[in-house]
Amino acid sequence: MAIYTCGHTTPDSDSICSAISLGYLLNKIGREAIPARQGVVSPETQFILDRFGFEAPLLKTEFAGEELFITDYSDKGQAPADIDKAIVVGIVDHHKLGDITTSTPLECWIRPVGCTNTIVKEMYDYHKVEIPANIAGIMMCAILSDTVIFKSPTCTEIDIKAVRELATICGVEDFGALGMEMFKVKSAVSGVPVRELILRDYKPFDMHGTKVGIGQLEVIDLSIFDSVKAELQADLEKLRIENNLHTTCLILTDIMKEGSEVLVCSEDTSIFEKAFNVKLVDGKVWLDGCLSRKKQIIPFLEPAFA
Fold first, then answer.
1. Which segments of the chain does DSSP mark as H helices, in order?
2. pTM over 0.85
3. If I label 52, which of 45, 180, 216, 303 is the partner at 20 to 30 A Cα–Cα?
């Protein structure tokens, strides 16, 4: 039986690229694997795939009875709906430990680094498997994306070392310039439906029994949202109601100013305000220095619902 390598429901570049890079590794060590994805490929991810000559992984949303090696998450809310009927054989992730449980032992690679592909790189090193140039290229780009070209507080020396080594393998001399190209693609939001923007990098969370949804958009100039910000906020509220969520947030991150404006829709906005010691104005607030949902939003917001 082949193992499916697959990331979370709304895949970002790390999720897609780690499914591919992990799938290749498993095949090289004698474990038949098929990369998969649960959702649509974002423009940034498509740019990366095109740059290094890859097709998008297989679109697959049902895994009952299948062997699954999870990448880039361990929260049940980001898993396939039939995850309880799948055979989870492994997890490789760089987020907090989630609530997925298994009935059999599994392989776990979970590390506090900036990107799942950094951990996959360590797996290649551990198994002494040579990384092909095109695989190295997508891994490098995923790390640059997740670490915001090393600006994110989640970035570690391990991530930086991995990028430098992968850049040598794939023959990219100026990986910083390539990273900026990626973020320019991310910043092209003109004409994109607001719901598509909200869901581009959106994750659901169960925070002590309370359902919360948080999306993030990283761009090089926050002013590109000026004409659609009201629409984004209105649709964020619609999304909250449609999915019976307590709170929805959209983090609009300016990677050049190194901060984020957060749009908040909630049954009780005071929970968000207390979590960050801020006052929302028209459902919005600027958080200076905030670049990471994983490290600068979730660890503060989740305890507020306890």
1. 13-28, 43-51, 116-127, 133-146, 157-170, 175-186, 194-199, 229-242, 269-276, 293-296, 298-304
2. yes
3. 216
In the chain the domains, ranked by start, together with CATH numbers, are 3-184 (3.90.1640.10), 194-304 (3.10.310.20)
Q: How does pLDDT run along the chain (306 residues), one tens digit per residue?
A: 899 999 999 999 999 999 999 999 999 999 999 999 999 999 999 999 999 999 999 999 999 999 999 999 999 999 999 999 999 999 999 999 999 999 899 999 999 999 999 999 999 999 999 999 999 999 999 999 999 999 999 999 999 999 999 999 999 999 999 999 999 998 888 889 999 999 999 999 999 999 999 999 999 999 999 999 999 999 999 999 999 999 999 999 999 999 999 999 999 999 999 999 999 999 999 999 999 999 999 999 999 999
CA distances from 45 to 53, 73, 142 (A): 12, 18, 8
Length, in residues, of the chain: 306
CA distances from 183 to 166, 261, 295 (A): 19, 17, 20
Report the chain's C-alpha Rg in angstroms: 19
Per the CB < 8 A criterion, the answer to whether 70 and 91 are in contact is yes
- Distance of alpha carbon 17 from alpha carbon 39, whole angstroms: 13
Task: Kindly report the backbone phi and psi dihedral angles of residue 266, in degrees, each rounded to the nearest multiple of 5, phi listed first.
Answer: -160, 155
- The amino acid occupying position 78 is Q
Q: CA nearest 300: which of 236, 249, 258?
A: 249
Structure tokens at 247: 């709170």
* Phi and psi, residue 74, nearest 5°: -145, 15
Sign of the CA dihedral running 268, 270, 271, 272 = positive
Sign, CA torsion 50/53/59/65: negative
